[in-house]
Structure formats: C-alpha cells, structure tokens
Design brief:
The longest helix is centred in the middle third of the chain and has 6 residues. The protein is mainly beta.
C-alpha cells in the first residue's frame, strides 16, 4: 500500500475503459504522476483527458498509440 504522498512517482494503468467515472479509485488516478489507458472501446463523454499514453483498438484489430497533443 502506497502513501498518497508517494503517488506522484507512480504510474496508473487503466484497462478496459476510457471513462473517468468507471475507474476503481478516482483519487488514486488523479494523484498518479503518469497515467496510461489501454482500451478497445470508442472514446465518449467523460474520457480520461490527462492520460500520458493511450493504446486504443476501437472497432478494428489494429492498435493505435497516442500521446497528449498528438493525433
């Protein structure tokens, strides 16, 4: 178990959802220094905007990597 103060040095990996409202702990997600999202659903309302890495496969077998500010 990590202390909350140590979380800025950790990476959170969110799997199978883009939805901020569906994560197990929003507090932990918001305090992590880095966030990676791996999902196969299409982005919708309420997606995690501050992700440092996104791996998506929405509707196809090809994966796409993206980072903030890049298509």
């Amino acid at each position: 178990k990590f202390e909350i103060d140590e979380m800025e040095n950790k990476m959170c990996v969110v799997v199978d959802t883009y939805q901020l409202g569906l994560v197990e702990s929003r507090e932990i997600l918001e305090r992590c220094g880095k966030v990676a999202v791996i999902d196969h659903h299409r982005k919708g309302v309420g997606f995690i905007e501050h992700a440092d890495l996104v791996r998506a496969c929405a509707g196809s077998r090809r994966f796409r990597y993206s980072a903030p500010g890049k298509p």
